[in-house]
């Protein structure tokens, strides 16, 4: 009996946050181009699937709960058993490697120096994870090398169909996303207020985006209260936010997943960097060549449609969670980053009439 299943069935495993999932889309695009008739699934943590909405390269999305009962976990594992021919994981974790072992006979993934010998044996092709010198996009694409598949480094943003809120139709606007997930990546509230006020002086509407998380809504509402910006925080899905950003004149945001999304849409994207290493995590420019590294470790810089505006200090980037080494810490390099550093870049943009 002839099987109706495609000859190649790929599962991509990315059990991390939104930005990490988004940066796996070049890997998915490369597989789709190499094997147009294959079946491609993606396994993500529950709540992360929205960053893949509307992606034409994906056939199915599996959401794995971070925590669940043993019975539900066993059912999940049973459902994965050898459904695929290949499993690829850009995540170096025991969990991802175990899921890959269940899913496919051919398993490609990353290991660290501390990965146990048992966990290493869960992979048929193990590559050493590079957390310092190689950007995440070409780093993920290294998984294609054992398969002989050419890389395509296009980051694919989500889409909900391309429409934007009706009150913005025909208007020129900029999108500002002021709130990162972690405090150590944040810019002072007063700086965001001043930035929005200065953009508004250019007769441009500012649209504020953000999630429904209460602390984030509070910050965004305060900026809106002290300016004439339109507050859309908590009202748009991730895909709708991507559609909104794609039609903006430019985007300004911190080192966060939404900024990676903005860069992928191709519009001018300005991002504020402090402790994070831009070599590894700078937003990937929309037209960037796979063979070239877009970012260096230090200094404000520009590649394609992306501007990284980096805080100053001999310790920058420190690769730490702020000056106090925890997620709720402030970062002096960002606290002292002046508003004019952002305004100077905005001034250079050739904005559409």
Write the layout of secondary structure elements.
Layout: E1 9-14, H1 18-22, H2 25-34, E2 39-45, E3 60-64, H3 70-80, E4 86-89, H4 94-103, E5 106-111, H5 117-120, E6 125-128, H6 136-141, E7 173-176, H7 189-200, E8 205-208, H8 214-225, E9 230-231, H9 238-246, E10 251-254, H10 257-265, E11 269-273, H11 278-281, E12 301-303, E13 306-310, H12 332-335, H13 339-348
Helix pairs in contact: 7-13, 9-10
Short structural description:
The protein has 353 residues and is α/β, with parallel strands linked by helices.
Q: What report would you give on this structure?
A:
It is a single chain. With 353 residues, the chain is α/β, with parallel strands linked by helices. It folds into two domains: 9-147, Rossmann fold (3-Layer(aba) Sandwich), CATH 3.40.50; 166-347, 3-Layer(aba) Sandwich (Rossmann fold). Helix content is 30%, strand content 17%. The radius of gyration is 21 Å and the shape is globular. The chain starts with 8 loop residues before the first strand and ends in a 5-residue tail after the last helix.
């Amino acid at each position: 009996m002839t099987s109706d299943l495609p000859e190649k069935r790929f599962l991509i495993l990315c059990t991390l946050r939104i930005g990490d999932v988004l940066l796996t889309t070049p890997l998915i695009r490369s597989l789709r181009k190499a094997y147009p008739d294959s079946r491609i699934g993606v396994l993500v943590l529950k709540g992360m699937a929205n960053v893949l909405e509307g992606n034409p390269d994906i056939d199915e999305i599996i959401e794995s709960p971070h925590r669940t009962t043993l019975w539900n976990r066993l059912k999940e594992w049973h459902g994965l058993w050898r459904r695929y021919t290949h499993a690829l994981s850009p995540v170096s974790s025991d969990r991802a490697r175990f899921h890959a072992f269940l899913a496919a006979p051919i398993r490609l993934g990353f290991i660290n120096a501390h990965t146990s010998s048992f966990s290493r044996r869960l992979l048929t092709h193990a590559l050493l994870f590079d957390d310092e010198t190689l950007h995440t996009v070409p780093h993920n694409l290294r998984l294609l090398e054992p398969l002989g598949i050419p890389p395509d480094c296009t980051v694919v943003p989500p889409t909900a169909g391309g429409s934007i809120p009706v009150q913005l139709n025909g208007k020129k606007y900029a999108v500002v996303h002021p709130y990162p997930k972690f405090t150590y990546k944040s810019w002072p509230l007063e700086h965001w207020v001043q930035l929005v006020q200065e953009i508004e002086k250019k007769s441009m509407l500012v649209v504020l985006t953000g999630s429904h998380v209460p602390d984030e809504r509070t910050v965004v509402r305060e900026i809106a209260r002290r300016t004439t910006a339109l507050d859309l925080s908590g009202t748009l899905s991730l895909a709708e936010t991507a559609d909104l950003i794609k039609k903006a004149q430019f985007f300004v945001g911190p080192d966060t997943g939404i900024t990676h999304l903005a860069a992928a849409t191709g519009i001018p994207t300005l991002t504020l960097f402090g402790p994070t290493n831009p070599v590894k995590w700078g937003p990937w420019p929309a037209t960037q060549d796979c063979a070239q590294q877009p970012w260096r470790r230090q200094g404000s810089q520009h590649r394609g449609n992306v501007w990284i505006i980096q805080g100053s200090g001999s310790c920058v980037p420190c690769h730490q969670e702020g000056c106090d080494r925890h997620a709720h810490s402030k970062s002096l390099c960002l606290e002292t980053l002046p508003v004019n550093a952002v305004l100077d870049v905005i001034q250079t943009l050739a904005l559409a009439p």
